[in-house]
Amino acid sequence: MMKLAGSLLAAVVVAALVAGCTTPYVQSLTVTRVPRNPAGLYPVEAQWESDQSSLRPKSLKGWVIVGDESFPMHLVLNSPNRWEGIIQVPADQKFVYYHFKFDYLYDAFSKTPKPGSARSSSYTMEIRD
Predict the structure, then answer these.
(1) CATH number of the domain within which 106 lies
(2) Contacts for 19 with CB less than 8 Å, ≥ 6 apart
(3) Cα 112 vs. chain centroid, distance in angstroms?
(4) For residue range 54-91, what is the model confidence (pLDDT) as tens digits?
(5) In terms of Cα–Cα distance, which of 85, 107, 93 is closest to 29?
(6) What pLDDT, on the 0 to 100 scale, is given for residue 1?
(7) Which of 4, 24, 44, 86 has the most CB atoms lying inside 10 A of its own CB?
(8) 3-class DSSP string for the chain
(9) Residue 98: how many other CB atoms lie within 10 Å
(10) Using CA atoms, how far apart are residues 32 and 103, in angstroms rounded to an integer?
(11) What burial class does residue 122 get, using C-beta atoms within 10 Å of its C-beta: 0-12 exposed, 13-18 middle, 19+ buried?
(12) pLDDT value, residue 41
């Protein structure tokens, strides 16, 4: 009976730890329609949020993914959850499909931090002539 109580307690502790780790939330702040830029460069913005206490904030790196290309993002000054970057779109393209990806490290049960990653939904930007 004592062994069963110990196993049950261990299961409850593990469940509580897992429940405390939430999935990061990524949302686009980019406008959906933009005028064509002759240089083919377009700004994008995202909001990143996570209450995962084991996440190492200084390890966070943001990317905008367009097809097979990755464009780096940087943290906006004085705005801890806002990221921005620039994507390049060919002149003949009217729509661009993209998503955001954030890579990070988090503290695990071992002393070595583990890599983690969060991806946003897909978004569309219309480029108007």
Answers:
(1) 2.60.40.10
(2) none
(3) 22
(4) 999 899 999 999 999 999 999 999 988 999 999 999 99
(5) 85
(6) 53
(7) 44
(8) CHHHHHHHHHHHHHHHHHHHCCCCEEEECCCCEEECCCCCEEEEEEEEECCCCCEEEEEEEEEEEECCEEEEEEECCCCCCEEEEEEECCCCCCEEEEEEEEEEEECCCCCCCEEEEEECCCEEEEEEC
(9) 22
(10) 25
(11) exposed
(12) 98
Domain that holds residue 66: 24-128
Residue 45 lies in a domain: yes
- Give the integer Cα–Cα distance in Å for 72 and 86: 8
Separation between Cα atoms, residue 26 and residue 17, nearest integer Å: 23
What is the pLDDT averaged over residues 115-121? 95
> What is the total count of domains within the chain?
1
Domain membership of residue 3 (yes or no) is no
Tokens of 61: 């790196």
The one-letter code for the residue type at 26 is: V
